[in-house]
């Protein structure tokens, strides 16, 4: 519902994206709502950007620092979501991964350095409001879902 309200066309290309986030995040013990809204922020609700194309299945902007590099590519939406979740897990805690590493940048993260969303600011993105922007989208998601 949230994605449809912000960019309905995105669902035509990735109709199972919400389920993939629930599945992959649940498997790794990561909050799927946070991961999902981060995906919405990183891809502009699946509109993507000049540096990341939909065909790359890169939902977290992995490897596209400051818009200067073409980001990582994954062979399927599931593996792209898994890489995003693994990258979040690297920042969030030091628990071992349950799946084989598909995130090409996993080993570059100091494990557990950002256990709170606000601590992703300056780490995942240089945007000084990055964590606040994720939390604002979380609020919008919960309002749209009738949870707030």
Written overview of the protein:
The structure is a single chain. The chain has helices spanning 2-13, 17-28, 32-43, 77-92, 130-144. By secondary structure, it is mostly helical. It has a single domain, classed as Lysozyme (Orthogonal Bundle), CATH 1.10.530. Helix 2 (17-28) packs across helix 3 (32-43), helix 2 runs parallel beside helix 4 (77-92) and helix 3 crosses helix 5. The longest helix has 16 residues, at 77-92.
| Percentage of residues in strands | under 5%
Radius of gyration: 14 Å
Number of E-state strands:
0
Counting helices, strands and paired strands, the structural category is mainly alpha
**CATH structural architecture:** Orthogonal Bundle
The CATH topology: Lysozyme
The residue-averaged pLDDT reads 93
Instruction: Summarize the biggest pleated sheet.
Output: none
Shape: globular
Which descriptors apply to this entry?
148 residues; 5 helices
Topology of this structure?
Elements: H1 2-13, H2 17-28, H3 32-43, H4 77-92, H5 130-144
Helix pairs in contact: 2-3, 2-4, 3-5
């Amino acid at each position: 519902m949230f994605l449809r309200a912000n960019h309905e066309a995105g669902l035509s290309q990735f109709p199972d994206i919400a389920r993939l986030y629930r599945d992959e995040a649940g498997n790794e013990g990561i909050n799927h709502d946070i991961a999902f809204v981060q995906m919405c922020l990183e891809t502009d609700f699946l509109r993507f950007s000049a540096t990341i194309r939909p065909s790359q299945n890169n939902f977290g902007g992995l490897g596209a620092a400051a818009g200067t590099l073409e980001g990582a590519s994954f062979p399927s939406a599931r593996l792209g979501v898994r890489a995003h979740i693994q990258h979040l897990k690297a920042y969030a805690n030091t628990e071992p991964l349950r799946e084989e590493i598909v995130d090409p940048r996993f080993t570059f993260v100091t494990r557990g350095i950002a256990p709170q969303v606000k601590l992703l600011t300056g780490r995942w993105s240089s945007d000084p409001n990055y964590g606040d922007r994720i939390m604002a989208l979380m609020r919008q998601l919960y309002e749209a879902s009738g949870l707030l």
